[in-house]
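Internal QA ticket QA-208
Title: Verify multi-chain structure generation after dependency bump
Assignee: T.L.

Test input:
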Amino acid sequence: MPEYFWPAADDRRLLGTRIDRLDGPVKVAGAAVYTYDLDLPDLLYARILHCPHGAARITKLDVSKARAMPGVEALRVIHEAGSEVRWAGAEIVLLAATDERIAGDALAAIEVEYEVLPFFVDGEDVEGAPQKEDAGGETQGDPDGAMAGAAVRHAGYYGIPQVAHSCLEPHGQVCRWDSADEMTAWCSTQAVSALPNQFAERLGVPAANVRVICQYIGGGFGSKFSVDRWGIECAELARAAGKPVKLLLEREWELTIAGDRPSAYARIELGADAAGHVVAWRSRSWGTGGLGGSGSPPLPYVFSVPNRAHQHTSVPTNTAGSRAWRAPNHPQACFLTLSALDDLAAALGMDPVEMLRRNLALTGRLEPIYRQELKVADELMGWSRRWRPRPERSQVGRWKDAPVLHGLGVSVHTWGGRGHRSNCELSIHPDGSVEVKLASQDLGTGTRTAIAIVVAETLGLAVKDVKVSIGDTRYPPSGGSGGSTTIGGVSGSTRRAAQNAVEELFARAAPELDAEPGELEVRVGYFGVRGDAGRRLSWKQVAALVGPSPLTVTGVNPGPGPLNDSGVGGVQMAEVAVDVETGIVRVEKMVAVQDCGLIVDLETAESQVYGGLTMGISYALSEEKILDPATGRMLNVDYESYKLAGLGDVGELVVHMMTGPGFDDRPVIGLGEPPVISPGAALANAVANALGVRVPHLPLTPERVLDALDRALTAGKEEA
Amino acid sequence: MTDEKKRDEEHGLSRRSFLRGSAAAGLAPLLAGGVAAAQEAAEEGVRSEAGATVLGPGPVPVKLRINGEVKALRLEPRVTLLDALRQDVGLTGAKRVCDRGTCGACTVLVDGDPVYACSLLAVAAQGQEIETVESLGSAVLGGAVALHPLQAAFVRNDAQQCGFCTPGFVVAAKALLDRNPSPTPDEVVDGLSGNFCRCGTYAGIEATMAEMAAKAKGGGDA
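Actual output:
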């Protein structure tokens, strides 16, 4: 077995360059067929009757009219009369019909009555919650003593709400039974290889008989790892009807039950010495992720304050469970921590960038990364030149001449991102064509393209020469795409397979070149003897040596190994303009400086960071699941009221990927999560810098901005 | 006269007018004046009532001119243009995301104007020129690619990630460039404000439009 390695900077031909994504053309042409687009002969369309109450007992359920409607071919009752359901959106009945409209008519013909039961949906109200669960905590050093001895102290209350993943392609699948115990499922999923077993357990068939396919997925963001209840029921409807069934959630229910990042609220106290070194941290935090718990944000985030105590409480609420949302727990922990640190810097009268610098020793091995990234971000934002302290509190309300105020904010973040386990199979055909197969999936991150780049780089080919086949359980299994694990996983398995292929090809080519395998090298388009321009074989000649059948090798990324690493930093800075009359926050500019080890494709890597910034701006400014205490339902279940950032909301975005020593000489590290962590804190800090007043809760809506200004004015009058 | 009313008068009923009408009249059949195809077809589902042509509620013949080709379909009058394209014609480039005229993922051109296909009934789209993203260019993964220059610019600037919103953006961008070949950044924001993306590809879309605008100004290869 060869020694596996990534080429050094001087030896990289494709790695780290800008390469257009391979599936770009089919996407812009509208030719990429997503699960939602799939059509099959005799396809039935399924719909779901969802519980409209926060909790209810079903007192009457009569599906006879629906079942009897022409065109309805299968119907399954999930909750019979007499049973209780515990969240709005819970599935009561599913049915499949020959077209969607008939399915909708049939749903309307179901007679169902409910007795509403008590429910609780306000996850911020930890005092009023009927249930609470200790979700962990930690105490280090002497937080009380250190707090008492601190030169400067700050106490604040901060909050970040539940948000919806809001995948534009909703959750769902098409299921088709190919025989009594064999099924094919086209799923909108982040975990192709993991789904057969999930289906099999619930359907009573061997996992080996379940084929899962996902060529394109219209967004996942952490919410699409499970077959979910509706996946199993779709399969059951298809089995009952003897025809393929398509079931994708309607938008209202996609937003309600298929996407939820847990909320987090925290009372935080922290103290620093006179030089700005943070010496003490105490926090009590809580949040909700529905019935399934809220996770536990790691507090304090990034900075291991020497004397610290934190405790987190999970508040169960009557909503569908939370799902991993890009960088689970980190956006919450980052917003809470970096907001509090920013307020402490203001209390110290210190530039927050300077305060972060003075505390970098608390970030452990990330210290040199942050130090360099802060320097780059400072230059790109013009921070040192342009930063001004927050206006004095006494200035609040005296803005007749300048109703639009500008401010700068900063945040830092971290993430692991080590490659997952991945298997791939690489075939060299005698005609020189190359195919690589793995049951990974491309979420729009550029996975296909990265795989092709690694193979092409290793074999001396062009990216277009490599056929990449993914998204099908007929290929070797690869991990789910979550937690920024995919790029490390698939690049690792693919590089290993390609290096294995090179070794085998060297063995075959060496006798032809009258050389030892160890004397050979891969060059663009040919294999040759090192230092001898006269002895070489073109790629076609090399490939012809594999014989009548293709040479097939495998590559396994075992997880940790020489080809991938874990642990990135990341610095973001935001500039905002806040209209103090309307409360509207405008993003003027954001700067993201990010490392991710060796970059495979610079173009799609930058896109990940642009995307993280954009999604971050969206949740920082406007996203929040609003749950109705009267009905238990999510109220803003359409895009007029669940606001996603648009083209005009993002301002100027500047992305800088760190390369060079200490950065891209590290192996590959994932990138999907890190850039989405900091925007909430960076933007909230910029607003505080503009106003001289903290808006303590995301999203930074006009209402919250004006409320914060009002509170400051009232407090100012009381003090006067 | 609002654009919507004007369209109604010219082409039948918009989905909004239909919903308004059906709310007022319970489940009364669709009153569709000016639907040419309906008049020639004294078939099931089409009749005359009080001087107006009444369609439905069952399937009625519908003729749609899509990407230059006439498609003869039988559709319930309540079927949207989007669903007709996706489920009956097999053109799935336009996506169904919000299904209520907010997100732009279903954008198609109707007589050259960008229209939310989810918000127009198929019966009301008769007699008009419907162009979908599929009319602009074609591509096969790893195979033949024949893209419109705008689509090629989307690829070069990586203006797509998951790609689900992308066809809608491409069509909306095409409509904008047809009206204004070299839009300023502000005009791009304005012209594409009816579409959104979840993955966050706006920077790439802005770069795409800047490239197209520069090309148009240069009058050739920029």
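Spot checks passed. The mean pLDDT of chain A is 97.
Status: verified.
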